[in-house]
């Protein structure tokens, strides 16, 4: 456990110095052997400064944490959401080397033009605008050189710190090592641009058809796989502006206000389909990743961070959203326990329900126009966290995506209301779940099952009666923990038997002792007393060692 922290390196010293310099008292006590019952996070602004001082990799960790409202209070989420790596672009000479290594052919054979000045620079990569030989404009995303080594070092240190903190009482409630490994996997995924490209292709396929919106109004940049590698991503250039900076003049004859409302409604339906139908969603829809194009379409870019949901979690989430809209505290608490699964064994159900009731009562008298659904979702996750429920990680990603979506939609349409927007979608969704995609086929299949049951039932009933009358029916009954109960009863019976034996020996010794003067059998009385004492002493010791004296 200490191996990851005891290795001498300049990077480790730098991290410790930054953490201690920013005044994180908990880590100071932890590293000096002080009391560490419950970690005390630094204030949000201090935590943000720590990540900035530690450099681009920890800036990315902070950005990942900003997607986890199931782990941190909202004030931390808000502070970390604005976290951006203030890093200068990599010199073109180094970028060109990386591009040539990844292409394995002359740049001149692939690109007609390639702008040496980046259009964007981040902690992981920077993007250049280019034109292919066929005239197609593309965006070329290049990974910063030498990043893998730094990330592997920091992942190792992050895991070591998680192991250290998990010693404290706090580690009993949160699997910090698993969380560090999860972040490590996410960071490594950010380094593999082929995964980002595959995510984009999957989103494009999923959104190519819908009954809730016009798929032609949504664009996902196409990936040019002939030139894409783990460190180089070549994709279609989107000609537009960030969603909140666009002028919305791409649709002649349509009022600008109505157009903004239509875009807000479109985004809601697009993301509701991703989360509740496809189970695969863009997990970082901040304003910089959504573009309004010149032709009136909305483009989703940067698919490096996605969320996935299995059908069971999807169903629980849909029901949770409905319970929140209906302000049903009891249903919220039950669904939260179901989501947490095995980690909910020690939760106090009455306390959980009371907390949800107090939370939702604040919203009883609010009009829908005043209600912030993402705020409510954050608070629902916070109640779960305070009651030691470990919610699935995709719940945090979903809450963050909804928060970003609601914030963008309210900027586009001041009268926007998330609950009102999703109600008809949920009604349609529940209807589809009830009758299926093909009602006639489902009805015929059900009729066929009933027919088969009606044909088989008489024969099965005859077989059952035959077994009952011939006494060949065997019942297999399994009782949970019956073996432990049997051992407990046997142990109690044995102790009772020994207690009776000890009493009998003492009484026998007393009788023999009273007759000793006549029969001269003193030695027999002594033997009986010694046997009773030994058995009694053994019985007392066994009871004390069992820990069940009371």
Automatic annotation (TrEMBL):
<feature type="domain" description="Protein kinase">
    <location>
        <begin position="113"/>
        <end position="455"/>
    </location>
</feature>
<dbReference type="InterPro" id="IPR000719">
    <property type="entry name" value="Prot_kinase_dom"/>
</dbReference>
<keyword id="KW-1133">Transmembrane helix</keyword>
<keyword id="KW-0812">Transmembrane</keyword>
<dbReference type="InterPro" id="IPR050154">
    <property type="entry name" value="UbiB_kinase"/>
</dbReference>
<dbReference type="Pfam" id="PF03109">
    <property type="entry name" value="ABC1"/>
</dbReference>
<keyword id="KW-0808">Transferase</keyword>
<protein>
    <submittedName>
        <fullName>AarF/ABC1/UbiB kinase family protein</fullName>
    </submittedName>
</protein>
<feature type="transmembrane region" description="Helical">
    <location>
        <begin position="522"/>
        <end position="544"/>
    </location>
</feature>
<feature type="transmembrane region" description="Helical">
    <location>
        <begin position="496"/>
        <end position="516"/>
    </location>
</feature>
<keyword id="KW-0418">Kinase</keyword>
<dbReference type="GO" id="GO:0016301">
    <property type="term" value="F:kinase activity"/>
</dbReference>
<dbReference type="InterPro" id="IPR011009">
    <property type="entry name" value="Kinase-like_dom_sf"/>
</dbReference>
<keyword id="KW-0472">Membrane</keyword>
<comment type="similarity">
    <text>Belongs to the protein kinase superfamily. ADCK protein kinase family.</text>
</comment>
<dbReference type="InterPro" id="IPR004147">
    <property type="entry name" value="ABC1_dom"/>
</dbReference>
